[in-house]
């Protein structure tokens, strides 16, 4: 179990016209396809607590108000193989019940099936954190897992 939970269990991506986004309990990942040969100096990326703006070669690719707040100082972007921009945002609210239903407030929403799968994944990730001796990466979950699933913290150990 040395690999992070999302590496063992995979991710639940939400496809967009420019690429995809997905999330874990702590982070939101955004992958934007850009023209091959793009150079870092062609990229303009602004990451703020509730706002994002990304332009490549003067063309705006992504801009708007994020679904929820992020930690400004911990947001990063990288250009990979001169054809993919990967943005990592740290969620302010890192609770399993904080499953983003869309990347921006009114855009790039996950369809209901993808949203359901995202919530399941975050609930299993929460269980993994609460029970580090067990591996939930291949587990299936059913029942009431919305808003982070059941809370077992009040049970005696």
Mean pLDDT: 89
Structure class: alpha+beta
Q: What overall geometry do the principal axes of the alpha carbons give? A: elongated
Q: Please give the number of β-strands.
A: 10
CATH architecture: Sandwich
Low-confidence stretches: none
Helix-strand blueprint:
Blueprint: H1 5-9, E1 14-16, E2 19-23, E3 27-33, E4 43-47, E5 51-56, E6 59-65, E7 76-80, E8 84-90, E9 102-104, E10 107-109, H2 112-130
Antiparallel strand pairs: 1-2, 2-3, 3-8, 4-5, 5-6, 7-8, 9-10
GO molecular function: unfolded protein binding
Protein name: NudC domain-containing protein 2
Main location: nucleus
What descriptors fit this protein?
3-stranded antiparallel sheet, centromere, 10 strands, Immunoglobulin-like, 157 residues, 5-stranded antiparallel sheet, 15% helix, 2 helices, alpha+beta, 32% strand
Description:
This protein has 157 residues and is an alpha+beta fold. It has a single domain (5-130), classed as Immunoglobulin-like (Sandwich). Helix content is 15%, strand content 32%. The protein contains 2 helices and 10 strands. The chain has helices spanning 5-9, 112-130, and strands spanning 14-16, 19-23, 27-33, 43-47, 51-56, 59-65, 76-80, 84-90, 102-104, 107-109. A 5-stranded antiparallel sheet has the order 1-2-3-8-7. Strands 4-5-6 form a 3-stranded antiparallel sheet, with no helix packed on it. A two-stranded antiparallel sheet has the order 9-10. Strand 7 and strand 8 form a beta hairpin. The longest helix is centred in the last third of the chain and has 19 residues, at 112-130. The radius of gyration is 17 Å and the shape is elongated. The model has no long low-confidence stretch (mean pLDDT 89).
